[in-house]
């Protein structure tokens, strides 16, 4: 079967029904707020899904390169990055990489990627460059995860145009909902104009501390407001998750028994269930 098929026109492939070739489900981890746990979620979800025998590609779409480093890939030493895919016509096959540390592939990024915003300006269909580039590897994976930068930029737009869904990590803090409407509106616009497949898969509560009453209250409000759009699993604040990147490892690999890792493994299971129901 031609792997360059337009997945938006192939519902039988999307649903992954038995007897059909299954193509990767593609998800952005996005929230334009900085430091809310996007990269920690993307890296640990990748590791968790890999531990659950899923074939996973993690795309680092942030010039900070944190998902790259957090997967044990030296962002300064890589030959090709997602920048080369977006701007220089390098294929994902050529640019993807993997270390022994993790059981998933990485399409790495470094600060060069910041230039892509400007360099893509004159390019036709500039918001669909990533989507086009991914068609050749869709059949290689069960999941493709995209770690987005903290901005509603052209890079994030490329992620949203390539994806079937968005996972939104958020902290249960007073300002948690502020800015969320901008993200949701952007997703709605992309859905209406650029990518009919796109939907919000769920909101994930991260860095949760149940001892803080306000966090409990905000969590309850989120439940009332978003209902089953909220993932059941709650990721606790856990120092092992924060320590892991300095070892070039996802928390799920660094200390699998830790509470944080266990929560992300549970999240992997929940994602698989949600994707089945899509
Ligand atoms: P940016 O917007 O800069 O890309 P981000 O949204 O990707 O940030 P992370 O880098 O994942 O956020 O997390 C921000 C900081 O919080 C990091 O130092 C990370 O190690 C820490 N952190 C994330 N999740 C947890 C957690 N559950 N428990 C403890 N620390 C966490
Ligand atoms: Mg990040």
Keywords:
single chain, 278 residues, alpha/beta, Rossmann fold, seven-stranded parallel sheet, 13 helices, 7 strands, globular, disordered N terminus, binds adenosine-5'-triphosphate
Number of strands: 7
Q: Specify the biggest β-sheet.
A: 7 strands, parallel
Class from helix and strand fractions: alpha/beta
Write down the secondary-structure element order: HEHEHHHEHHEHEHEHEHHH
Low-confidence stretches: 1-20
What is the typical, i.e. mean, pLDDT?
A: 91
Instruction: Please indicate the percent range of residues in DSSP E strands (runs of 2 or more).
Output: 15-25%
> What would you say the CATH architecture is?
3-Layer(aba) Sandwich
- Percentage of helical residues? 25-40%
Q: Please, how many domains?
A: 1
Task: Tell me the CATH superfamily.
Answer: P-loop containing nucleotide triphosphate hydrolases
Strand order, biggest sheet? 3-2-4-1-5-6-7
What value does the Rg take, in angstroms? Answer: 18 Å
Folded structure, characterized:
The chain has 278 residues and is of the alpha/beta class. It has one domain: Rossmann fold, CATH 3.40.50. 39% of the residues lie in helices and 15% in strands. It contains 13 helices and seven strands. Helix 10 links the parallel strand 6 and strand 7. Helix 2 crosses helix 13. It is globular and about 50 Å long. It starts with 10 loop residues before the first helix and ends with a helix. Bound molecules: adenosine-5'-triphosphate and magnesium ion. Adenosine-5'-triphosphate binds next to helix 2, strand 6 and helix 11.
